[in-house]
Amino acid sequence: MSFFEQIKPSIKTKWLDYFENNQDWLNILMDRGESVATPDGGRRPQGSVVLGAISAKEPRLAESLYLFSLVEANFDTIVDVLGLNFDPLLELRNLEEKGAAAKPMITPPTPAQISMPTE
C-alpha cells in the first residue's frame, strides 16, 4: 500500500477537525468567493488553504506536498488526489447524523496557553 493510501484516512480526519475548529473564519473566506465547488454539490476552501492546513496537521505529508507543488501547480488537483475534494460541512453533518465518532475532538488552546510571555 502506498504512503498516500495509508495516510488518506488520517488526513481526512485531520482536515475535518481543522475545518470544524476554524469554520467561523473559513466560512467568511468562502463567502467572499474563496471557495471551490465540490462533486458532492457543496463547496470547500481553495486548495492552497486545504493543503496549508493539512501540511501543518500532518508533518509526514509536508515534504511530499512540496514536491507535488513543484510538479503540479494546481493545488485543487492535489486536494483531489488526496481525497479531500468534498464539502467539509456536509461531511461533518453526515458524520453527526450517523452518530459516528470518526474523528477525534481536538480542544483549541485556552487563552492562557497562547498568551505571550511578558518581559
Structure, described:
The structure is a single chain. The chain is mainly alpha-helical. The protein has helices at residues 3-31, 47-57, 59-71, 75-81, 88-98, 111-114; strands spanning 35-37, 43-45. It has a two-stranded antiparallel sheet with strand order 1-2. Helix 1 crosses helix 2 and helix 1 (3-31) packs across helix 5 (88-98). The termini are far apart.
Query: What is the strand tally?
Result: 2
Radius of gyration: 15 Å
The description of the largest β-sheet is: 2 strands, antiparallel
Order of helices and strands: HEEHHHHH
Rounded mean pLDDT is 82
Strand content: 5-15%
Which consecutive residue ranges, at least 5 long each, have pLDDT under 50? 102-110, 112-117
Outline type? globular
Q: Percent of residues in helical segments? A: 55-70%
* First-last Cα distance: 51 Å
The helix count comes to: 6
Subunit arrangement of the protein: single chain
Cross-sheet strand order for the largest sheet: 1-2
Q: Structural class of the helices, strands and pairings?
A: mainly alpha
